[in-house]
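Input chain follows. Return structure tokens only.
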Amino acid sequence: MSAYDPSFEIELSPDLLGHGDPAAALRAAFHLPYLMRTHGLRIIMFLGAYIATEEDDMRQGALEGAQRALTGFDTIHDFFKSWSEQNNLHPQVREVLEDTRDAQRDALEALTEFRRVAELAMGVMARGADMKGSDYDPVMSSAYRVFHPAMIALNDQMTKAGDTARNRLEAAAEAARKRAAESRARIDSIARTVRLISLNARVEAARAGEAGRAFGVIAEEIKALSEQTEAASAEMGASVEEIMRNFRVA
């Protein structure tokens, strides 16, 4: 084991799955092409580090880093190949991926080529042999000729699809907010009416004296119900505003 301990993240974001925050799900989807490019660059970097040093522990560290980067690379590669078969994919992520199938297909071809030449070079690392330019050059060529352009194109397409999904979500949320505001206004109006009825009932109960005592109790209950209704209305308004904030993607 070398002194170098590669610990960069290689797992997919859990926000891609389930039915959680739509904004977080869209951010996780946008991030996939960037993560793939990052793992590709790490592979190139570690291959270069292997060539640049003759120290065994440094070479071992470069090998471990490249292997971890390749694992992260494969995780995203496999996700793009199989996402349509996953039942627990977040609906917003699925929508973005559905809209970018063509870009994904082109990207997968580039990823497969890059992985093939990178794996050949990493095989040299794994054997502990000296790496030559003839081992490294195909990786660099594939990276800048095929891999990076495909990732940039995929990123652009996913961003556009995500923007469309985000705008649709925000429009739906705004429409829901308006409906909730209208409902809240009606609830407030009803609560005020009930409060007036309660007040009138208490006045009449007081006039009736002992005979109106039971009616007065009912009037107090009506008043309490009115207050609870107004509080629920305020809470509903706060909840709607929080939902609107969550729909806004950074």
